[in-house]
Structures are given as C-alpha cells and as structure tokens.
Amino acid sequence: MNVDDDDVVVVEVRSLVVSNVKATSVELSWSLGDTRHVDVVQINQTRIDPESVSVYNASSNTSHTATRLSAGTEYEFYVQVQSGGKTARTNATRVTTGATPTDDLGLFSVSK
Q1: How much of the chain, in percent, has pLDDT values that exceed 70?
Q2: Topology of 5-100 in CATH?
C-alpha cells in the first residue's frame, strides 16, 4: 500500500509567544511546525483568580488577540490544534495584564 504525503497527518504546534500585553488585551502567536490541513485552532484562556475558563476558535492559524480581559489579572493561555482526528497543544503560559486601561508602559510579567 502506498501512502501519499497528504494522507499522513502530522500535528505539531509550538512556540507560544505572548506580546503587547495591555490592561484588557494580549497578543498571542505560535508556529505550527509541519502541520498540514488544520481543522481547528483553539485558544484556551483561564482566569486564575477567580478561576474561569474560555475557549476561542482562532481566526488565524498562527495568531490571536485575546480581548475583554480584566486589568491587573493573571491569565493562563495555551493553543490547541486539531487535524485529522489528532490533537497537539503548546505548554501553558501565564501572563498578568496591566494594572489600568491606560497602562501602555508594557509593565507585565510572563511565566511558564
């Protein structure tokens, strides 16, 4: 039996980067490695205290802006990719949003 490269499903997502952290939004970007035919890209967002979880389908395969966040609040994000019945995800990354909506100084912390 011959296997066509298009029939082999490889799912790899890596390198979650959090940037442009503001009081109510953060930008997320990642790479997909050799993944082909991506069916779903989900962003999993957890507010740490009090805990609440939100899941978003990304409008792009490699970036997403999380909005409507609470100022001065710690969140955890990870990206999950589904393709051909297989799933891969990044490590979770924690970030604390800026203290006030006018906080454009980039004062934040990121931990893994």
Answers
A1: 79
A2: Immunoglobulin-like (2.60.40)
